[in-house]
Amino acid sequence: MSKPTPDEQPDSAAVLESMTLLATLSTAATVRESVAERRAGYDPSAQEPADRAALRLRSSGRALMDLLMQVALSRVPLQQDDGPLPHAVRHFDLLLKLRRAERLTKAMHQHLLSLYPDVSETLVEEARKTHDEIDQFLDTAPAAADGPHLSDVLERGLSFVVWTRHEVSVGPGGEPSDGDG
Fold first, then answer.
1. pLDDT digits over 59-92, tens only?
2. What angle do CA 57, 59, 65 make, to 5 degrees?
3. Distance CA 121, CA 128 (A)
């Protein structure tokens, strides 16, 4: 068996198989996490105490910001020729990340509902709009030109996370702070 040279392209069937496996593992991890939370007595649709909701909101916000920044950085143009296989892999990665972002915004919306009326109604509504825009992008991309553009989705998502950080501060002991932190 010879080693592939750097100029050789990987077999497209092997890449497709790898992407299928990655998507399956991603789905399995999401299901496992959901089942573990349910077994631990956590119901994501239920109201939760304000301190726990604020901590989970902060954690989800950090994860969403990291994910959106990865997506933004992945859009930097490459100087090499983009063949169909690398393009497909990057598009697949984008879709996986945006599916995760969709789940995170849904969770953040639920956490904000647990904090309402201590958070503004417009922030709660922005969580829903952000989720819906990501969902619409995933449903229409790349086929439709009339749906939201990725840059708009990223801008709305990043703005939402920053707004959430500003409005819902969590102090050092895990307690919601008065916004000075």
1. 999 999 999 999 999 877 666 667 778 778 888 8
2. 95
3. 11
Question: pTM to 2 decimals?
Answer: 0.76
Q: Residue 120 — pLDDT band, cuts 50, 70, 90?
A: very high
Q: How far apart are CA 24 and CA 149, in angstroms?
A: 27
CA distance 55 to 115: 11
Q: Has residue 147 got a pLDDT over 90?
A: no
Q: Flag whether pLDDT at 180 surpasses 70.
A: no
Structure token digits, residue 111: 């956490």
Nearest to 156 by CA among 177, 136, 126, 179: 126
Task: Considering only CA atoms, give the Rg of the chain.
Answer: 19
Closest C-alpha among 148, 27, 142 to residue 96: 27
Cβ(50)–Cβ(115) under 8 Å? yes
DSSP per-residue string spanning 116-173: TTSS-HHHHHHHHHHHHHHHHHHHHTTT-SSS--HHHHHHHHHHHHHHHHHHS-B-TT
